[in-house]
Amino acid sequence: MNTTQSRRSFLKSTVVGAGALVAARVFGAPAILPNRSPSSQLRIAVIGCGGRGTSSHVPAAAAERLVALVDPDDKGLAKALKKAGSQNKIRTFSDYRKLFDAMGKELDAVFIATPNYHHALPALMAMQRGIGVYVEKPLTYTIGEARELAAAAQKYKVATQMGNQGHSSEHYRRLCEYIWAGAIGNVTEVHHWCNRSNGGVGPRPPPAPVPDGLHWDEWIGPAPYRDYHPDSVKVEHGKTKIVPLHPHEWHNWHDFGNGSLGNMGCHIMDGAFWALKVEHPTSIVVEEMAGGSAERYPIGTRIRWDVPARGAMPPVKIYWWDGKRTGIKNAGSDAEDTADSVSKTARNRPPLVEKLEKEYGRDFGGNGTFYIGDKGLMYTGCYGEGVRIIPEDKHKAFPMPPASIPRIKGSHFGDFIRACKGGPPACSAFDYSARLTEFALLGCLAIKAGPGKKIEWDGQQCTNLPEINRFLNRQNRAGWQA
Questions:
Q1: According to the model, what pLDDT value does residue 136 have?
Q2: What residues contact residue 353 under an 8 Å CB cut-off, 6+ apart?
Q3: What spatial distance separates the first Cα and last Cα of the chain, rounded to whole Å?
Q4: What distance in Å separates the CA atoms of residue 83 and residue 50, rounded to the nearest whole number?
Q5: Closest among 216, 203, 181, 184 to 73, alpha carbons compared
Q6: Which of 133, 119, 124, 114 is nearest to 52 (CA)?
Q7: Which residues contact 470 (CB under 8 A, 6 or more apart)?
Q8: pLDDT in tens, 115-144
Q9: Is the entire prediction scored with pTM above 0.85?
Q10: Between residues 443 and 31, which one has the greater pLDDT?
Q11: Structural domains in the chain?
C-alpha cells in the first residue's frame, strides 16, 4: 500500500472532514454515501470471527443482512455461523481477498475484527469498491496506514467507523463539556492506566504443528512470513501449558499487534484526545519499561507524550501506565528481565490511584484516567464511564454544563449503519479515528526506540532519531496488496 501521504496534508484533510462531521450532525448536511432507505437492510460481511468478531460484530451484522463470514480458522467460522442463527445463506471464506473477488459488488458494508496487521488492507479494498467500513481499534497497525485510510475515506466517499465504542457514549461527551466549562481549570497532566499486559520476555518458541483447521498462510497475510509457533510454553505445577498465538496472544508480538496500547489505547485515551483538542505531541518517551524483546512488546510501561499549547489550552503531559511494574527498568538500566521475575510482578498504575483509593475508600478499577487541572481533578473509566470531579462534593457543587455535543442514539454499530444508509457521518469516522490511532501508536514507536530515548516529533515524522521513521510504514508481503 502507498503510505507516503504527508502528515501535513493528512491533517489538512482531516480538519476539513471533522468540520463536515459536525456540520452534518448539527445542520443535517448530506451524508457521505448516496442516500439509502433507513428501512432497507445492508448486505454485510464480517471479516474476523474471533472473540470480538463473533460476540459483537456477527449479531450487529445479523440485525441487518449478514451475507458472508471470513476467517482463516475453520473453528472460528463454525462458531460465527452458529452465533448468526437462522439467516439467508451465508457464504464463508478463509481469505478476504477471495471475498472481494467473489462478492465485491454484492456488499454494502464490512465489519473488520481481525488482528491489527490485517486491518488496513481489507478496509482499503472495501473502500475502493465503494463499500462502507467498520474497523476495530486501533484503526491500523502502522501510522502510515492510518493516514492512508483517512485519505481513502475522503476519496471514495464511503461511511466509516472505528470500534472505540466509548466515543458514542454519553460519558465522553460529558467529560468534554465539563472540561470545556472549566470544571477543573487548565488541564496540565493526564494519567491513563491499563491492566492489560500484552507483551512477553525472550525469543519466540520453536516452530510447532499448525493447529487443525487454521489456514496459516492466510493468517500470516501481509506480515513477514514465519512458521507457526505458540505464544509461549509454560511449566506450572509440573505441567506444561501451551499458550496459543491465535486467536488473542498475537497482541504481544511486534509483527502482528501493538501491545497493550493497541489493545486498549484508543478506548482509554479517547477522552483526553477529544476533550483536550490534541493535534500531535512534540515528543514521546518511554520513561520505564519491564520485559519485552526484539520480537515482543514489554509487559509493563510508563510512557509520556508532551503536547504543546492548543489555542487557549496550555501544554499538557499525557502519561500511559500499563501491565506490570515490580522490577521495572528505566533509562540506563541494563538489568535483564526473566520469565520468572516478570510473572510475579504487581500491576503498574500511577501512585495517585492508590493514594486516592485509600483516601476516598473506593476502587478506581484496572483501567481509567485522571485529568489533573489547576483547579481540581476528574476521573473517567475505561470507556469514559463514571465521569466525575474528585472528590464527590466538588462534583455536586459544579453546575452541570449544557449538552453542546450531538448525542448518539443507540449503539456504536447503529451509528455506523445510519451513516451507511444516508445519515450523518459516524462519530468515530476515519477523519477522527485515524488521528486518535496515530497518537496512540506513537507510544509504540517510543517502545521501539527504547527506554529514555525521546522521540522528537514534528507532526509528520521523528526528527532526532531518523532510523525510527522506518516503523511508520511496513511493506506488505507479496500478494497482499490492494
A1: 98
A2: 191, 193, 364, 368, 370
A3: 7
A4: 12
A5: 216
A6: 114
A7: none
A8: 999 999 999 999 999 999 999 999 999 999
A9: yes
A10: 443
A11: 7-165+409-441 (3.40.50.720), 170-200+253-397 (3.30.360)
